[in-house]
Amino acid sequence: MSKQENNEDMITLIDENGNEQLFKELFTFDYDDYGKSYIFIYPAEQENDDSVDIQAYIIADNEDNDGQDLVPIEDDKEWDMVEEVLNTFLDNDCNFKA
Fold it and tell me: Tens digit of pLDDT for each residue in 21-51?
């Protein structure tokens, strides 16, 4: 999926059919063991909801080097690491603690 920055914490994702959806950035982090950057996002329309659907992606430069793409995490060990990072920011009730 390609991403377009709207402002510092809002991202528009465009799927392969050209459909756009606005997401809010929760946070990003780099992980040296994999040499990659990661992002946690959730749908902007869920911002004031009691629970949100948090999604995680790898941030990668696109093929044209004129932007970035969000790439799904497909490796199980890599996914476990990303999930562990997210869990360090969630309390026992799964609320985000900054």
Answer: 999 999 999 999 999 999 999 999 988 887 8
Q: Helix (H, G, I), strand (E, B), or coil: what is residue 79?
A: helix
Lookup: tokens for 28: 């990003």
Token look-up 């004129």 returns: 66
77: enclosing H helix or E strand: helix 76-87
Q: Which of 18, 23, 19 is nearest to 5 (CA)?
A: 23
The torsion angle over the Cα atoms of residues 54, 37, 72 and 14, rounded to 10 degrees, is 80
> What is this structure's pTM?
0.79
| Dihedral class, residue 80 (left if φ above 0, else alpha if ψ from -120 to 50, else beta) | alpha
Convert the pLDDT of each residue in 65-83 to its tens digit.
Answer: 778 889 999 999 999 999 9
